[in-house]
Every structure is written in structure tokens, then in C-alpha cells.
Amino acid sequence: MEALAEQGVTVLFKADAERMRDGVRPWTFVANGGPFHEDLLVRTDAASVEDCLKTCLPQLRDRGLVIPE
User: CA-to-CA distance for 20 and 18, rounded, in angstroms?
Assistant: First the structure.
């Protein structure tokens, strides 16, 4: 996530206790643009942090962001 921040992207991970208790995709990942990526918005809700990353990292790479493996 540090690599994204260095490229001007703000990243947020959230764990929602109520959704976790209800068994409904408690993790949220949001990445939005900074000075170089104003129109960037990538968001997902998922069952785990890993699932968030599997969904969002390819989208971010497709938009030209460099993210180490």
C-alpha cells in the first residue's frame, strides 16, 4: 500500500463489525486518486483482506499503477 501512496493514491481498508457479525463481506478496500490520478476510484467489499486485494490490485495495475508483487 506504501507503493500506492507514493504514487499519490489514498488507500483505505475497513473491517465492519456489524457486517462481520452478520456474515456479510465485512472487509472494504477503497483506493482513490490523488494529484496524478483524480479520476481513480477502485472499491470492493469482500470476505477477507486477501479477497479485496485479489479483486483490486489487478484493476490498479491495469490503470498504470506500479505495485510490487
Answer: 5
Distances (CA, A) of 15 to 2, 10, 69: 19, 17, 24
Rounded Cα distance between 28 and 6, Å, is 21
- Single pTM value for the model: 0.87
Residues with Cβ within 8 Å of residue 15, at least 6 apart in sequence: 26, 27
pLDDT the model gives residue 15: 97
Q: C-alpha angle with apex 41: 57 to 51, nearest 5 degrees?
A: 35
Contact 34, 65 (CB under 8 A): no
Query: pLDDT tens digit string along 27-51?
Result: 999 999 866 667 889 999 999 999 9
